[in-house]
Amino acid sequence: xxxxxxxxxxxxxxxxxxxxxxxxxxxxxxxxxxxxxxxxxxxxxxxxxxxxxxxxxxxxxxxxxxxxxxxxxxxxxxxxxxxxxxxxxxxxxxxxxxxxxxxxxxxxxxxxxxxxxxxxxxxxxxxxxxxxxxxxxxxxxxxxxxxxxxxxxxxxxxxxxxxxxxxxxxxxxxxxxxxxxxxxxxxxxxxxxxxxxxxxx
Amino acid sequence: xxxxxxxxxxxxxxxxxxxxxxxxxxxxxxxxxxxxxxxxxxxxxxxxxxxxxxxxxxxxxxxxxxxxxxxxxxxxxxxxxxxxxxxxxxxxxxxxxxxxxxxxxxxxxxxxxxxxxxxxxxxxxxxxxxxxxxxxxxxxxxxxxxxxxxxxxxxxxxxxxxxxxxxxxxxxxxxxxxxxxxxxxxxxxxxxxxxxxxxxx
Lengths: 201, 201
Fold this sequence. Notes:
The structure is a homodimer. By secondary structure, chain A is mainly alpha-helical. Chain A has helices at residues 2-25, 32-39, 44-50, 53-77, 83-103, 105-114, 119-137, 147-150, 153-172, 180-196. In chain A, helix 4 (53-77) packs antiparallel against helix 5 and helix 4 runs parallel beside helix 7. The interface between A and B is large, with 50 and 49 residues.
């Protein structure tokens, strides 16, 4: 039991140290030795758990994709019956994806820094396109928007806001990560804009 | 005349080499020597034109801000008289800012990589907030959106799309930078979404 805990924790420490260093300096500028030192472990351990530095980066990217994209993908895969359900599904998608991005901000920084191709991200955007296209067919989404061309609108907004949250907090005093009331207001304003547009009906 | 041209061109080569290296490796991982070598000049020249490495980075960020934000700031500072003018002003803002970001993609990569505070960017977002708030007062923008909380919506969308354009082109075959027809369709779908929302009226 103790041994298991220790094993888990070494692996986790390598994961976190790798994510911190990749996010700060970039993959190419970080050595295996540096990661192991930051994790307080010997060099053998990274080979044991992740094969090599690339394996560690892959694990960080994969874990991020699983933690952030898996639930939204399931959410957008299920059919909706009417406009109210469509809207509440999008609300849930927006709130839960924001929360997941905030909880996984460090791997998000790594993903952003390395601009890696992400199958999970493509998969999510594909599901989003299908979700919107179906709603167009069912008559409650306007048809003069091409779903393929706006599929990134919400993800861009969420990811950028989470990435820049500390800088925005420093500037404006509004802290998306630490202030739940502000986060709720932010979600409401941005969702209303996305659903109903800027111009008065 | 020839001498002037040569002077200009050395300065520009340093600017471009600095932007390329900062974008690729980050400020801290690039040496003055490396930039000068890439620019095909001696080390004295960077001191001559930009004082030091920080001066070169500042020049890149300032030039980016001037090239990308100055026109949109002027555009949003002028009053609009009615809804039609409001909409056409936003269209112009969206198209021209996209074009400027595409033309300044290399400095955009530098700015993104270093997450520097940008007075010009804050200034633009502030103008945008005022522009939308005035339109709310004039009755053609819906009032249940807080302008401060959605001011980054269009800039996020534009900047992310330009940053990832080569990756998106590789994935999907759609090239925002090289294909003017696609760019026009992309602008139309995203503007319509921003102005009128997803849900059918």
